[in-house]
Amino acid sequence: MSAEVTQGRFRWTLWMPLAGLVVLVFSWGTYPPPLVAAFIAVFLIGAVLAAVHHAEVVAHKVGEPFGSLVLAVAVTVIEVALIVTLMISGGDGTATLARDTVFAALMITINGIVGISLVVGAYKHHLAEFNAEGTGSALATVVALAGVALVLPAVTTSGAGLEYSSSQLAFAAVASLVLYGMFVFTQTVRHRDFFLPVESAAGRRAAERGPVDADGDGHADPPTTREALVSLALLVVSLVVVVGLAKTLSPTIEAGVDAAGFPRAVVGVVIALLVLLPESIAAVRAALTDRAQVSLNLAMGSAMASIGLTIPTIAVASIWLDGPLALGLEPTQIVLLAVSVVVAVLTVVPGRAKPLAGGVHLVLLASFIFLSIQP
After folding, report:
1. What domain count does the chain have?
2. By the 8 A CB rule, do 146 and 333 touch?
3. Which residues form a coiled coil (predicted)?
4. What's the pTM?
5. How far apart, in whole angstroms, are the C-alpha atoms of residue 82 and residue 92?
6. Residue 316 and residue 61: Cα distance in Å, rounded?
7. What digits encode the pLDDT tens for the residues 198-242?
8. What is the spatial distance between Cα 351 and Cα 134, in angstroms, rounded to a whole number?
9. Residue 7: pLDDT above 70?
């Protein structure tokens, strides 16, 4: 690829993450006034868009399902670092911070990302088609992780309130890692074909019209190794900027939430929405190109990584952290989780979905957000 083409491809996606990193350095630890916060938000949105671009470049190079795994794990690792940082800083609400953040991420992924992807994909291509076996195994792993990490602490008796005892927390951490590791092995090694995009009727018709690229494989040619490595580095920088600027803007968000009279848990929902924006945009773009499986890989992988990586990290960090660690869900949250699981199962089993299925998930996401504001 020529230097001119490379320069065109990386022009704004190269300088935006770096500019955002500079803004993050100068704004870290400050409480920006509204006008400055709006300026910072511009770079936050730019970093989100850059992250989506670079994630797609890396995903195209490594192929599915590795591409979805790269973005899901990258976002979650930085999200976990943010949670631990906030818990170390202390303050009100840190006892339930990990729980609220993980549950918000869970609702946003299995209802929000899945819902919007199915609506967009099914509306444009008549039906959104995917592999029910692969997506079903991912959903089963997410449900098991949520049950062990978030539901059981609400009903056990060894810990105080919604907390696990030390031995229970250690067991939950090990179980979460084992489940997550087993799924990654299944997705990337043992049964990788179950997580590849399904060739839909629309895709077959497009293929019959002939190849659209130079080598005739029906897909755009992958980037060079150098481009992929540059994009991988810029993806990490972009995600650091997204999470860092989201944390910088959190005092402004908290002030707005307090001024509106909303519960403090709404702050976690807003920040989770910001952090998951790269995956949401990438999932919608995949759905538009008739790759619903990629969208579901992103959604389920993000939900799985949010629990499977967060809980073990928090369990280790709790050795040095003071104060309680409440992981158990409240009754309203348990009901929302149960309904979401039932709907997700009914969505996944047929292996294809109409726009209605996505709309049902989006209503559940709206219910979660509304009940977070009006518990």
Report:
1. 1
2. no
3. none
4. 0.80
5. 16
6. 35
7. 765 554 444 444 444 444 434 456 778 888 888 888 888 888 888
8. 10
9. no
